[in-house]
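Lab notebook, bench 4. Still working through the backlog of constructs that have no structural model yet. Next entry is a single chain of 209 residues. Request: give me the structure tokens for it.
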Amino acid sequence: MNYESMSKIHYLFYILIHPVTGFEELKFNKKGSVGIANLLCFLLCFAVIVRQALSAFIFRTTRVEDINILLLIAGCIGILLMFSLANWLFCTLLEGKGKFFEIWVVSCYSMLPYIMVSIPLTAIGHIITIDEAFFYNTMMVLLCVWSGLLLFIGTMCIHQFTIFKNILTLIFTIIGIVIMLFLLLLLFTLLRNVYVFFVTIYNEMSFRI
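Model written out:
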């Protein structure tokens, strides 16, 4: 395979079939692209919104009027960012060789199977019956497994870890994400309490004046 002549778009799809070689090229020959990664992050948000809003009735988990698009976008981008940050922090302590932008590129590239197939699969969901729902759900699970496998191989390649060490760092990464979510929740609660406090003071002063 002539990697030198391979375009970054061609290389992106090459990773789907040859993840080990592909992510090694990303690490050592700079085949990854932050711009393409950002585009994939945007497309992931779009795919998640489409699946939530346009899924067939038998596969819908929430009412359309209850869908918060901004929350879905923040969730998709936030999870990818927190994963990249937590993985970079823990892997730096464990002598990982991956840089933050490389982890970000790997994270976004790994979402390509879900991005490509979830929207067509959502459309197919409108023409299948409840008896065929098993195949639909199985396909969605396989998409998530495929993306997860790409993410696992990608982080292992860019950090130059063994399988066991990569599993360990991914466990630490998940713990890091939970800690970040907890801290964000505390911050949100604190800011909300401060806001309520000042609003209460303002209302009291208004009544007295």
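Notes after review: The mean pLDDT is 84. Residues 8-177 form one domain. Flag for follow-up if needed.
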